């Protein structure tokens, strides 16, 4: 079954924020991936390599996820663009279908394509809502 979770962008303080959330909600992080540990590490300035590329904290039946949206990689955080609805379908085919149908008439920011973990794409739909579609091949 497809799941939907909040995905938040921070201006470089994701780790501090998520340690706070963990102290409030408890639990353990499902994932902590730093930019230095990704295929994109060479594009990241040395002083930002330890920033968070992806972090996930389960809260009840949901997962709160986030990243450091780095200005050095062209990201700018403003109130209103610092969150997405993240969809995690159970198959590559479903990921592509959901991406194509939901993004119709909207603005595609990252076309859905193969990434080092699976398939991923980002867009703003025709109603102004920001979405991420993420199919993790290793989880399915």
Q: How would you summarize the topology of this molecule?
A:
Layout: E1 3-10, H1 14-25, E2 31-34, E3 52-59, E4 62-68, E5 83-88, H2 92-103, E6 107-114, E7 118-124, E8 130-136
Highlighted features:
single chain, eight-stranded mixed sheet
Low-confidence stretches: none
Mean pLDDT: 90
Radius of gyration: 15 Å
Between the first and last Cα atoms, what is the distance in angstroms?
11 Å
Helical segment count? 2
Assign a percent range to the helix content: 10-25%
What is the overall shape? Answer: globular
Give, in order, the helices and strands: EHEEEEHEEE
**Structural class of the secondary elements?**
alpha+beta
Number of strands: 8
Strand percentage: 35-45%
- Sheet with most strands: 8 strands, mixed
Strand order of the largest sheet: 2-3-4-1-5-8-7-6
């Amino acid at each position: 079954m497809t799941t939907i979770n909040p995905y938040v962008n921070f201006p470089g303080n994701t780790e501090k924020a998520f340690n706070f959330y963990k102290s409030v909600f408890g639990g353990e992080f499902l994932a902590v991936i730093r930019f230095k540990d990704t295929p994109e590490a060479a594009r990241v300035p040395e002083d930002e390599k330890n920033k968070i590329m992806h972090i996930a904290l389960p809260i009840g039946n949901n997962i709160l996820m986030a990243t450091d949206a780095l200005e050095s990689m062209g990201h700018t955080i403003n109130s209103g663009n610092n969150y997405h609805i993240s969809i995690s379908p159970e198959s590559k085919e479903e990921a592509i279908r959901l991406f194509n149908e939901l993004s119709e008439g909207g603005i595609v920011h990252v076309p859905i394509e193969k990434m080092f973990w699976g398939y991923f794409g980002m867009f703003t739909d025709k109603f102004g809502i920001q979405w991420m579609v993420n199919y993790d091949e290793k989880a399915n």
